[in-house]
Amino acid sequence: NGDNKYDIIELGAGDGSKTKVLLSHFIHNNISFEYIPIDISEEAIRNLIIDLEKELPSLKTNGMVGDYFHLMEDLNQYDFSKKILMFLGSNIGNFSWLESIDFFKKLHSVMRPKDLLFIGFDLKKDPATILNAYNDPHGHTSRFNLNLLQRINTELNADFNLKSFKHKEIYSPQTGTAKSFLVSQKKQEVRISDLNKTISFKEGESIFMEISQKFDEEMIKDLAENSGFEIVRNFHDERLYFMNSLWKLND
């Protein structure tokens, strides 16, 4: 009847590096489950399945490509196992507060009463620690954001000069919001041919690239309650840098 079987459904699985630790633990404890990674990228799912077949050959896996909510609705038509939905890697931090509530409400609408949601959060911490992470000496965040300009150059036939933009990070300890910008180092014009647009930049003018929200326990509780969930248990690391929160439907 499926009562003793779990589906572990990961939303935005990517390369599954974080999840493999959990999957290994479940396998070693002889828990009966199927792992269903969902991602918008067909290549990511294909590579993940190949990796898992090598690393965890006994694991039952059913990779799916597409939109989370549509695929969850499809699964509910024929799969009546208890589901644990996972949204890890603090990906929720890339949403605004209202977008987060909307996202969780949509998940709520495709979950059954016994299903659970396991979600990762990046916690508020010393502002210097957060700023150092985004202004890291290896320049990972800077390269990540500059790569978006390179993609526009390649895919929309634009002429951004990457050397004339510099990465800048701002963090607000009160709100827990980290924001990334690319700042124009000079007065310049950029032509995006495929859009037939020319954009003028003043020296010091910035492009807002991304938001990375940090949370505290009160914010996590508010998110859960505002979207129809109740916290079952919170798990965190020794330094209190991150938290994984297990939610159930509050109906």
Protein model, in words:
The chain is an alpha/beta fold and 251 residues long. 33% of the residues lie in helices and 32% in strands. It is built from 7 helices and 13 strands. Strand 7 (165-172) and strand 8 form a beta hairpin. The longest helix has 17 residues, at 140-156. The mean pLDDT is 91.
Which descriptors apply to this entry?
single chain, 251 residues, alpha/beta, eight-stranded mixed sheet, three-stranded antiparallel sheet, 7 helices, 33% helix, 32% strand
* Amount of beta strand: 25-35%
Biggest sheet record: 8 strands, mixed
Oligomeric organization of the protein chains: single chain
Beta strand count:
13
Q: What integer is the average pLDDT?
A: 91
Order of helices and strands: EHEHEEHEHEHHEEEEEHEE
- Unreliable stretches (pLDDT < 50, length at least 5) are none
Note the overall shape. globular
Number of helices: 7
Which structural category do the helix and sheet elements fall into?
alpha/beta
Supply Rg: 21 Å
The N- to C-terminal Cα distance equals 24 Å
State the helicity in percent bands: 25-40%
Topology:
Blueprint: E1 6-11, H1 19-28, E2 33-39, H2 42-55, E3 60-61, E4 64-65, H3 68-78, E5 82-87, H4 97-109, E6 116-122, H5 127-134, H6 140-156, E7 165-172, E8 177-184, E9 188-192, E10 197-201, E11 206-213, H7 217-226, E12 229-236, E13 242-249
Parallel strand pairs: 1-2, 1-5, 2-3, 2-4, 5-6
Antiparallel strand pairs: 6-13, 7-8, 8-11, 9-10, 12-13
